[in-house]
């Protein structure tokens, strides 16, 4: 059996995803970071961006994460986000509409949120 | 129908209507408690993970962050009181307000100025009635608080604590809310959110004695702590809001249950009185008829002679 790490992706109001994975890629403030089993203990600040989780079954889970933290120790990884959505839960059309709206209202935060959602859907 | 009987009948009808309303409110509150409890549970993983992260950074990084170090001479404190928008919840609000007043008095006796922040119309009304100034207040979401509401509350509080005390900032942040112990027990509690006491946080995380790993911080320990602590405060406020909401619904349920029971007793008593009044009326009618016929019989007997 390949080495695994246990992943908990939690949003402020719910547990979004949890399970075993072989690789997790997330975007921290200083760049993308990939975490594999046996990584050195890590605590970082996340940028909003897509998080890619390669599960031990070989499937890929993508989630849009808007700010938060990544913490890893003892092969347990937790991704804490105020808002996190799995790519499957994202309504692409709605996100596109939100992007249009945010652009016309020049709401930078909303624009970035919609953009992250769309990127998460695109990687799916 | 006699006047007395009519009065009883009318009162029975109005109490029955009231009983129906309180019964409905009781059932609504009961279903909301369950929902609110579920929300408390759903927010727990985030809070535990966050607490663990805070413990890790704060013990791993040996630097002095304004949010974790105690001021040598605290002169000003902020108290955040969580009450509810609506009443009809027994002693729920008055208990929370009482706890806040006690805390305020205690802080003032220790020589601190106290800024009061209030959530919920009931608490605001209490302070407005006494014409005491509030630093800030929020309403409209106490029944079903969202995380965004917690963020809204936390923002000015964090700003106040980061400011210098001389410019109107605060040294300490206390929170008063109603802890949901069980369906029957809810207690008003006070807690100091900031400055963070690490022993307490570690106790909460339940891992005081275990050896913590040496973390690699990305980008740096200070930056992580800077980003982490506001989130921690938000998450604590969110949790307190949810507990308060659950407690409020439980208190409403209990208050409405006793109101329903009382209405039932009242209806029983009134029906008994109404029955007695009806019997008295019948007895009176019978005695009138008997008396009347006796008088009539006497009169005819007299005329026969």
From TrEMBL, chain A:
Species assigned in the record: Streptomyces lateritius
Family note: Belongs to the ATPase epsilon chain family.
Function: Produces ATP from ADP in the presence of a proton gradient across the membrane.
Gene3D superfamilies: F0F1 ATP synthase delta/epsilon subunit, N-terminal
Keywords: ATP synthesis, Cell membrane, CF(1), Coiled coil, Hydrogen ion transport, Ion transport, Membrane, Transport
Coiled coil: 76-119
Protein name: ATP synthase epsilon chain
Subunit structure, as described in the record: F-type ATPases have 2 components, CF(1) - the catalytic core - and CF(0) - the membrane proton channel. CF(1) has five subunits: alpha(3), beta(3), gamma(1), delta(1), epsilon(1). CF(0) has three main subunits: a, b and c.
From TrEMBL, chain B:
Record's signal peptide: none
Record has Kinase as a keyword: no
Topology within the bilayer: Peripheral membrane protein
Alphabetical keyword list: ATP synthesis, Cell membrane, CF(1), Hydrogen ion transport, Ion transport, Membrane, Transport
Location within or outside the cell: Cell membrane; Membrane
Pfam families from the UniProt entry: ATP-synt (PF00231)
Family: Belongs to the ATPase gamma chain family.
Assembly description: F-type ATPases have 2 components, CF(1) - the catalytic core - and CF(0) - the membrane proton channel. CF(1) has five subunits: alpha(3), beta(3), gamma(1), delta(1), epsilon(1). CF(0) has three main subunits: a, b and c.
Function of the protein: Produces ATP from ADP in the presence of a proton gradient across the membrane. The gamma chain is believed to be important in regulating ATPase activity and the flow of protons through the CF(0) complex.
Protein name: ATP synthase gamma chain
Species: Streptomyces lateritius
Upper classification of the organism: Bacteria, Bacillati, Actinomycetota, Actinomycetes, Kitasatosporales
């Amino acid at each position: 059996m390949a080495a695994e790490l246990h992943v908990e992706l939690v949003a402020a109001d719910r547990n979004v995803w949890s399970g075993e994975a072989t690789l997790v890629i997330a975007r921290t403030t200083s760049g993308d970071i990939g975490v594999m089993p046996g990584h050195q203990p890590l605590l970082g600040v996340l940028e909003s961006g897509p998080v890619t989780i390669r599960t031990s079954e070989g499937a890929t889970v993508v989630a849009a994460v808007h700010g938060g933290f990544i913490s890893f120790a003892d092969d347990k990884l937790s991704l804490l986000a105020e808002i996190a959505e799995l790519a499957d839960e994202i309504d692409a059309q709605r996100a596109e509409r939100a992007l249009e709206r945010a652009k016309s209202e020049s709401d930078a935060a909303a624009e970035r949120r919609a953009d992250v959602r769309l990127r998460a859907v695109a990687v799916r | 129908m006699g006047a007395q009987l009519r009065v009883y009948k009318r009162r029975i009808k109005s109490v029955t209507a009231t009983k129906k309303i309180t019964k409905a409110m009781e059932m609504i509150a009961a279903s909301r408690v369950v929902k609110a409890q579920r929300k408390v549970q759903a927010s727990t993983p985030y809070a535990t993970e966050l607490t663990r992260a805070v413990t890790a950074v704060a013990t791993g990084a040996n630097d002095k962050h304004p949010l974790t170090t105690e001021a040598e001479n605290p002169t000003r404190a902020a108290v955040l009181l969580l009450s509810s928008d609506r009443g009809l919840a027994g002693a729920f609000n008055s208990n929370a307000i009482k706890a806040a007043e006690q805390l305020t008095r205690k802080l003032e006796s220790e020589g601190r100025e106290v800024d009061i922040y209030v959530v919920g119309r009931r608490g605001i009304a209490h302070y407005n009635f006494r014409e005491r100034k509030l630093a800030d207040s929020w309403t409209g979401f106490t029944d079903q608080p969202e995380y965004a509401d917690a963020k809204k509350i936390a923002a000015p509080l964090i700003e106040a604590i980061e400011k210098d005390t001389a410019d109107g900032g605060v040294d300490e942040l206390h929170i008063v809310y109603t802890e949901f112990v069980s369906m029957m027990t809810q207690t008003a509690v006070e807690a100091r959110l900031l400055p963070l006491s690490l022993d307490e946080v570690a106790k909460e995380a339940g891992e005081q004695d275990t050896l913590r790993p040496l973390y690699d911080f990305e980008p740096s320990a200070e930056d992580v702590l800077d980003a982490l602590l506001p989130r921690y405060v938000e998450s604590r406020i969110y949790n307190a809001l949810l507990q308060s909401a659950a407690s409020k619904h439980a208190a409403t349920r209990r208050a409405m249950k006793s109101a329903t029971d009382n209405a039932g007793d009242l209806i029983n008593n009134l029906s008994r009185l109404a029955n007695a009044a009806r019997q008295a009326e019948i007895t009176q009618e019978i005695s009138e008829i008997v008396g009347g016929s006796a008088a009539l019989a006497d009169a005819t007997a007299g005329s026969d002679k």
